[in-house]
Amino acid sequence: MDEKLQYGYREICQAMRRGYGAAGRNSTDHSPQVRTSSDSRKSKIATSTLLEARNSHNPSIILAQETYILDGRIEGIPRSWNQWLSKNNKAGIISLPSCNKPVFLQSTVNSTALKIQTEQGLLTVISAYSSPYKNIMETLQELHSILTDLGDERVLICADLNAHIRIWGYASEDTRGAQVEDFLLVQQLFLLNKTNSPPIFEHRGRKGWPDLSFTKGTDFANSCIWKVLEDYTHSDHNYILKEALLSQSRYSYPRFKTAYGGHRRMLQHLGQKTKQLVQQIEESNTKDHLAKATEELQKAIFAAYPYGQSYKAVVKNKHPPAELFKQLGNPSSGDTKSFALKILQELYPPSHSPVTPPNCFPLIQEPQITKNEIRRILKKAPTKKAPGFDAIDYIVLKEVKNSFPEILHTFYNKCYQLHCFPEPLKKGIIVLFHKDGKEADKIKSYRPVTLLPTIGKVLEQILLRRLNHTLKKKNVLHHNQFGFREGRSTDDAIHQLVEKIQDSKNKKLHTMVISLDIQGAFDYLQYN
């Protein structure tokens, strides 16, 4: 379902406080951290302050530098917030649930980058850090490399560069500041910091503006509002809020708790449209008309849902979903759709078979599909199986069949009459499962599972049962076919093989077995 989330002035929030709210830390103190109870308390204070700021400003992305790290994660951040760190753990990006499907690009020594798809185009956000004791050109070179790969795409960079220059608040300039200024000019970046802004850093009477925000793209820069938040701090660093007029189309596939009742209300709503749905299905004389009627049927059932808020199934995995694109292709330019298509093209190679099958057999006239056929199939349908994109699971479909059997009976017979499997029933949600022991950065290391609409699955079962009945009746299946047959399995094949080997041993003959494993066999079958 296409749900638009209008962020307006609530798009980007940056947490730029060094030490992630570590009170009393000097701005130039970069000695290795030693985990103490004091650090832990400071971390908890910083986290509570961040949550308070989050509730007030509702950010989608938080960028941070020099945070408290514990076991490879920013300490105290809720598990529902995804996070990515630079290789030195000094720069990080936190993606909140309100940010729809970010794509992790890369992490370098001093920076990390994430891409977001918005309705106004692609946006890449980069968090970077440069220690005052290190050569700043190392960080600037990393940023240059990322920007080169991105081309003309919109970019927001938030960096703690420890560089002094008058245009962002300092009274004097240093060499690092001049190098940053040259970098901005060469890359044609727009600085968001304001000269007269409150200090970002304050400690024992000293003030500083070490944290910089700059963008790529004139229109984007003009749409951004930058300000220092002085209300949320228990540290020597303040938060910086960046607000941008951006919006996202959020594509989510809802699931409802249909196992807990509420069916009566659903059936009452659907009953008002039953007559209209049956009439539209009966009047469908072409495949296009039937496809339209199928969509209306799916929408009518979904619109009748009284099951409350949808919920998301949480999948525990080693890698957040946003990292999958990075692992499977190292993308920089391009959008999430192009990344996904690249994966699908490798998992499902294009077919080069002829459009028309070489041998066309005359169609055999079959009797109409009966209500009993539908009832028997739905009776055995598993109620805990995940539904397709239309959110209609077997529980709901059984309720529809019990109360309005004419809807499904008319629909399936119309499909049979037009020799058509409606296009809307071919759309599925593809979920990738990592194969144990396989390399995570190889596309072939993932097993695709497609979640299809249950209405189409029932039609599949009707056709499969009729086909199997005909094949069995005419005795055309080979006796050595063990797979995909009711009452037979690979156990039968192994048993037959063992018998042949035993028979050869009894006859004092040698036996040689050749086992063939065809990679991606089903991907290359000529289904037509």
TrEMBL record:
Domain Reverse transcriptase: 440-524
Keywords on record: Nucleotidyltransferase, RNA-directed DNA polymerase, Transferase
Comp. bias regions, Polar residues: 25-37
GO MF terms held by the record: RNA-directed DNA polymerase activity
InterPro entries to which the protein is assigned, alphabetical: DNA/RNA_pol_sf, Endo/exonu/phosph_ase_sf, Endo/exonuclease/phosphatase, RT_dom
Residues of the Endonuclease/exonuclease/phosphatase domain: 124-240
CDD domains given in the database record: RT_nLTR_like
Region feature Disordered, mapped onto this chain: 21-43
PANTHER family in the record: REVERSE TRANSCRIPTASES (PTHR19446)
Entry protein name: RNA-directed DNA polymerase from mobile element jockey
Species this protein is from: Araneus ventricosus
